[in-house]
Amino acid sequence: MPSRFSIFLMIFLHSVSLFSQNDTYGKESKDYNAVRIKNAPKIDGIIDEQVWESVPVASDFVMIDPGDGTPAPPTHSTEVKIAYTDEAIYVAALLFDHEPKNIRREFAQRDNLPVADYFVFDLNTYNDGENQTRFVITAAGTLADAKMKGENEDYGYNVVWEGKVSIDERGWYAEMRIPYSALRFPDKKEQIWSTQFGRRINHLNETYVWSYIDKSVGKVTHYNGLLKGISDIDAPVRLSFYPYVSGQVENYDGDNDSKLSAGMDFKYGINDAFTLDATLIPDFGQTAYDEVKLNLGPFEQTFGENRAFFTEGTELFTKGDLFYSRRIGDQPTGYENAEEQLKENEELIENPDKTDLLNALKISGRTDSGLGIGFFNAVTQVEKARFRDTISGETREITTEPFANYNIFVLDQQFNQKSSISLINTNVTRNGHFRDGNVTGFLFDVFNKSSSFNFTGEAKMSNVNLPEENLTGFASVLDISRTKGKFRYGVRHEFANETYDINDLGLNFMNNYNNFFWKTSYRIFEPTGIFNDYRIQLFGNHLRRYDPDENVASNFGASFFGITTDRFAFGGSANYSTVFKDFFEPRRKNRYVEYPENAFLEGWISSDYRKRIAIDSRLEFNKYLGTAHNQVNFTASPRFRVNNRFLLIYSFGYSNEINRQSFVALEPREIVFGNRDMESIENSLQGTYNFSTKDALSLSFRNFWSTANFSDGDYSRLLQTGDLEAYDYEVTSENDPNAHFNIWNLDLSYQWRFAPGSEMILLYRNSILHLDDQSELLYTESLENLFQQPAKHTLSLRIVYYLDYNNIKNRFKG
């Protein structure tokens, strides 16, 4: 193990000396000098105040999409002005359009960008080429903000700022006020920031930027212009509170329950660079429902994060993919073993399937030398299962999840505007004789001088402390890719030993692998023929088991992606896989089932969202050669824009897999498989009516049905060679492997942002879930059965109010 890590470290040090050099790209970046003003303009979207007349103009925008550097036409010129006071930065954008009737003005709520014209203001207060904040305002007045790292935008990030728009016969106009309390910047007399302005003209399908971006090399954040002239500003006390109160009424199967709760989130700027975020007595009752499916595979079902605290400002903590936030508040570690603790004449009367979060905090920031530091901590409470003796009536409890502490610490040093090295540690400590976990990762991401090559790597060490033993594991990744020009290529190696396990706070489905990957691609950066953009890629991999060293499978494939000048996107892929040894489907260590070679084909389309009716659709087909095993997946999602305020999106999904040899049961000496057919249908509807950009009525509905049917008498046992042999397996009502699953979720909500940072949400939720072994039921019959089950009805109201220390202080002064 140490020798492998030493080799990894030597390769990294050599790569740093080879690749870390200052980057110029051969382009001269633009400069802009902001002007200090005494009297702040009124933020109303009407740029007619005298204060703007003395502020210089940033102009001469050039195209980034679909073309490459073409100057903006005079009919669609753009002018931007920046001023500042002791409290905030002010931005005025004049977005001229000689045909204002064509300006797209669809309404949407905050951080949702519809098919509308919009203006973008990017600001990097440390001028490090990597981390910057994006502020967006649409022609309808919708606001959005995001943290950017390279090409990635995190719209889970939210700060309080203002923006307004107006429109006349010359075009549309935007004004922004961004208070210093929403920014982090160095404690210096003179600030040297970098910035970028962008404009999307949707009816022309064109995007323009102020500082030219060469799409063929590097990242967009490397091409900012300099923002100068800002000096003698002081960071205010960055202290804000988000107190909330919520009430909930629930009805299920004739029983009523009500709950009233209150709590608070707060943010505190420790200094000019670092911020503390904390949630006290959190309430996640109104988070979106999970898209649960029937899962008969060997791996747990995973879901996206819907809790705002765990999505906002977490870019440091997600490095190395060691943080899966759904672990916090997840199912108790002893939940599935509770029934095994039953004694004679006992029944299980309570077994919580979720762990309650007591509180959580995170501290993060970056110094002016480029060092990012992050600290995260969360605490969950004790959960217990309760048993009752059916004869004596006495009850007892066992702990299924003890008091637990979750912790992450990150150091991330950036250099040369585009490269970084990182150290991250995650730790989970559970009170008492329970499982603990600790993982440490060392990462690097380095570009060479011309940004034509990128070299990345990871080395991660896991330690799991179990009551009976301690396990140490190791995993690594090495990747080198060409990142310049139309023709690109790369190779990658991934390794993990058999004891690598990060599942206390991270997520890994498999270990014990030694895999090799390669890819090569060709793409265009300017319109060619009927295409605005297209990419062709060839790829392959060779998968091996590490211990013992054994071939698993090899794959070869190709893919295509294209967008026409009419904004019609389409593509697809084809893949061939050799015989595959699946070491996870048998559910027993060092055993595998062998699946034959297979061929996979897919195709997809996405039509022009600017039109009133558009559609996304995908068709997939997977055929296992020489057998009757195949699978078809189909999805279609038509969308209908009723008007600029009302949008409906319907989605339909169908999946049918037949003749799959699947795991059924473990016996003392045998692993039983069966021939399974599995069919699924999914219907969902998303609808939003926007009364304004600050309040909307939203509908979210989903129904998922699935059935798994094993052929009668067609069972087999798994041999040591990975082959299957006919086996006489007796099916009873207790071990019937057939499954039938149906779930219904409906959310109807009204959201009103009644003040900056403050909101009220009224939510009605209706849900039904049913799981049994009636796999012979058809979809319509299943729906009839579903509605015979008791439904859970929930009505909740949540109000959050934003309080800023500086506003409170000024009011008292007044």
TrEMBL record:
CDD domains in alphabetical order: CBM9_like_2
SUPFAM superfamilies attached to this UniProt entry: CBD9-like (SSF49344)
Pfam families registered for this protein in UniProt: DUF5916 (PF19313)
Signal sequence residues: 1-20
Cited InterPro entries: DUF5916
Domain DUF5916 span(s) in chain numbering: 236-812
UniProtKB keywords: Signal
UniProt protein name: DUF5916 domain-containing protein
